[in-house]
Design brief:
213 residues; Rossmann fold; eight-stranded mixed beta sheet; 7 helices; globular; binds S-adenosylmethionine; tRNA processing; methyltransferase; SAM-dependent_MTases_sf
C-alpha cells in the first residue's frame, strides 16, 4: 500500500503514547500491561489503515488486539480510528513485523492475522513475503502451542505460494477457503479496507493453520 507522506502523522503518533508503541522491544513479555484486562492476545501484522483490527476489537471485548504496521503515514490513519473507538482492548505498534520474535515472549500470542499482505511477486523478494519460512519461524516462536495463524488475500499467486510454504513448514490446516465470501459455513469475516476494495474483482482466499508443536 502506497500512501502520500502525511506531515501530521509523526506528531499525531507522538501525542498518543498510551495507544501506540514505537519501541516495542522493552515491552517483550509484558504486553498485557498495555490493556485494561488480562485476556487472550491477537496480533495483526500489516494492519494498514486499521479497519479490521478496530472492528474486531469492537466485536470481541473479551480479546486484546495489537496491530503492527511498518508505515508511519498508514498507521496514523489506523490510530485515528483507535482514538475515535475509545476501546480499551486495542493497541498499535509502529514497527517491522519481521521482528516479532524480539517484541514478544514465547507463548505470548494466541492468534496472528495476516490480511492482504504485500505479494512481493518477484522470486528474489520471496523472503519479504509475510508467509515465507523466516516469518513463520518467528510466528512459531511467539504463538501459544495451539495458537492460530489466519491469512486471507485476493492474490491467487501469493495464496498458492503460502499454502506450500505453510505445508513445507509442517503446519496443520484448520480450514481453507477458495472463495470466502461464497462460503456456506458460519465463518466470521470482518472485512479489511483491501477486502472491500478488491472482492468485487474476484474471490477472497483464506487459510487458517496452526503449528505442529
Ligand atoms: N491489512 C490491510 C488491508 O487488508 O486493508 C492492509 C493491506 S496492504 C496491501 C499491506 C500492509 O502491510 C501495508 O500497509 C504495509 O505497509 C504493511 N506491511 C508490509 N510489510 C510489513 C511488515 N514487515 N511489517 C509490518 N507491516 C507491513
Amino acid at each position: 500500500m502506497r500512501v502520500r507522506n502525511k506531515p501530521w502523522a509523526k506528531p499525531y503518533i507522538e501525542e498518543h503514547p498510551n495507544l501506540i508503541v514505537t519501541d516495542p522491544v522493552p515491552l517483550k513479555g509484558n504486553w498485557q500491561s498495555r490493556f485494561s484486562a488480562v485476556q487472550p492476545l491477537h496480533v495483526e501484522i500489516g494492519t494498514g489503515k486499521g479497519q479490521f483490527i478496530v472492528e474486531m476489537a469492537r466485536l470481541h471485548p473479551e480479546i486484546n488486539f495489537l496491530g503492527i504496521e511498518i508505515q508511519t503515514s498508514v498507521i496514523a490513519i489506523a490510530l485515528k480510528k483507535v482514538v475515535e473507538s475509545e476501546l480499551p482492548n486495542i493497541q498499535l505498534i509502529l514497527s517491522d513485523g519481521a521482528d516479532v520474535d524480539t517484541f514478544f515472549d514465547p507463548n505470548e500470542i494466541d492468534e496472528i492475522y495476516l490480511n492482504f499482505s504485500d505479494p512481493w511477486p518477484k522470486t528474489k523478494h520471496e523472503k519479504r513475503r509475510l508467509t515465507s519460512a523466516g516469518f513463520l519461524k518467528n510466528y512459531q516462536d511467539v504463538l501459544k502451542p495451539d495458537g492460530l495463524l489466519q491469512f486471507k488475500t485476493d492474490n491467487r499467486g501469493l495464496f498458492e505460494y503460502s499454502l506450500v510454504s505453510l505445508n513445507n513448514f509442517g503446519m496443520i490446516f484448520q480450514g481453507v477457503w477458495l472463495d470466502l465470501h461464497q462460503a456456506n459455513d458460519e465463518v466470521e469475516d470482518v472485512q479489511t479496507e483491501y477486502e472491500q476494495k478488491f472482492s468485487a474483482l474476484g474471490p477472497i482466499y483464506q487459510v487458517i493453520a496452526k503449528f505442529n508443536q
